[in-house]
Amino acid sequence: MTIAVLGAGMVGRAIALDLAKDFSVCSFDVSEKNLQLLKQKNSAIQTQVKDLQDYASYSSFLQNVDLVVTAVPGFMGYNTLKAVIEAGKDVADISFFPEDALALDALAKEKNVTAIVDCGVAPGMSNFIIGRYNAEMNIDAFEIYVGGLPVHPKAPFFYKAPFSPIDVIEEYTRPARLKENGVIVTKPALTDRKMMQFEAVGELEAFNTDGLRSLLFTMPHIPTQIEQTLRYPGHVDLIVALKQSGFFGEEKITLADKEISPLQFTSKLLINEWKLGETEEELTVMKVILHGEGKTITYDLLDYYDKATQTSSMARTTGYTCTAAVHLIAKKLVTKKGVFPPELIGDDKICFDFVLNHLQARSVQWKMKTDHFSVTS
Fold it and tell me: pLDDT at position 275, please?
C-alpha cells in the first residue's frame, strides 16, 4: 500500500516516519528544507517538492496512491481535504481547519471515500474517548484540558510552539464555542480562567478556546461541554495585554509608507520568541473528564519529547493518533463511507482499543481512572 503524506512540517514528518515502518510512503511539501529533514531520517521515503495549493493537480499526482494523510496548515486544510476526496482517495486529516468538515460528507459518500478528520490529540484523542463512552453510558458533562508546553519555560512568555505564531494567535482570538445547560454559547477566547494542578508539571492556567468543533454537533444530547487550553502562569496576562493593545488586529496600518497589519507585525516578532527548536524538550499535558451515571471517568496524558528519535511530544501525540487512523482504514476496521470525526469512530470498541494500543506501542501512555459517587434524589 502506498500512502501520500501532504505536508512535511514537524507533525507531518513524524507521521511519514511512523507510516514508513509498514507502508510505502511519499511525502509532498512546498518546502525543500522540510523534505530534506525527512530524507535525513529515512532515505527510503520518497519526497517531492509540490505546491499543495494547486488543487486542480490532485487527481493527477495522487493517481497511484492508495491512501492520503493531510497535514497542511489550517488555512488551506479544507480545500486540501476537498481535493483529496474529489480524487477519490481515502484520507486521514489533521489540518484542523476552521471550516466544517462535515460539509464534505455528501461528496465523500458520492466518491466512495472514507475520511477521518481531526484525528490528532485535541481534537482527536479526546473525541475518540468521548465517542467510546457515549456508546456505553449517559454522559451529563465532559471537560477537556490540553496544552503543549516547553519543559524549560523562559520569561516573559513561558511558551514555545511547534507551529507558526499566527496559528497560535488565531487560537487566542477566535471566539470559543462551549455548551452550557444544553445551549451552545459563544465566549471570547482566554475567558473563564482558572488554575489547575497537574502531577509532575505543577500549576497551569486553563482558559477557553474554540476546540470542541464537531462534538458540539455530533453530541448534541450532552448538555455541558468544555474545552480549555493550558499554559504556564503568566503567559495569558501577556497575551491579554497584547490583544487589548491591538497587536492582533488584522486591519492594515501604514508604517514608513508601507501597509502592514498589526497581526503580521506581531507574528514576525514572535516567531523567534515562540519557535520551538528541532531538539528542544517540550511536553504535552492533557486531561479528559467525563461525568455521568454516578461516576467520573478521567483520562490523563503526560508525554515528553523523545530524545532517542528527536521527535517532539506534540508531533508524537498528534501524529501517532493520525497514523492509528490510517491503520484503521488500511486494515478495513473502518469501511463506512463519508466524513467522520473521531467520536464517530471511537464508538466502536475494537477501533478505540486499537488506537489506544497503537499509541501505547509508541510510548504514548494514556491513564484511565474511574471515581464513583453517590447520587441523591
Answer: 84
Cα(199)–Cα(297) distance, rounded to whole angstroms?
Answer: 17
pLDDT digits (tens, 9 = 90+) for 254-266: 988 889 999 999 9
DSSP letter for each residue of 109-178: HHTT-EEE-S-BBTTBHHHHHHHHHHTTS---EEEEEEEEEESS--TTT---BSS-HHHHHHHHHSPEEE
Q: How confident is the model at residue 374 (pLDDT cuts 50, 70, 90)?
A: low
- Return mean pLDDT, the chain: 95
* CB 76, CB 95: distance < 8 Å: yes
N-to-C CA span, the chain: 57
In a domain, 32, yes or no: yes
Q: Check whether 376 has a pLDDT greater than 70.
A: no
Looking at the fold, whether 93 and 149 belong to one and the same domain comes out as no
Q: How many domains does the chain have?
A: 2
Is the domain of 293 the same as that of 318?
no
Residue 375 has pLDDT above 60, yes or no: no
Residues forming a β-bridge with 258: 255
Do 342 and 288 lie in one domain? The reply is: no
Question: Which of 282, 304, 326 corresponds to the end of one domain?
Answer: 304
Q: Is residue 114 part of a domain?
A: yes
Q: Give the domain extent around 333.
A: 2-121+314-365
Cβ-Cβ contacts under 8 Å for 141 (sequence gap 6 or more): 222, 223, 224, 225, 226, 290, 291, 292
Give strand pairing partners of 350.
Answer: none
What are the grid coordinates assigned to 281, written together?
524538550
Average pLDDT (332-347) is 98
Task: Give the mean pLDDT of 24-39.
Answer: 97
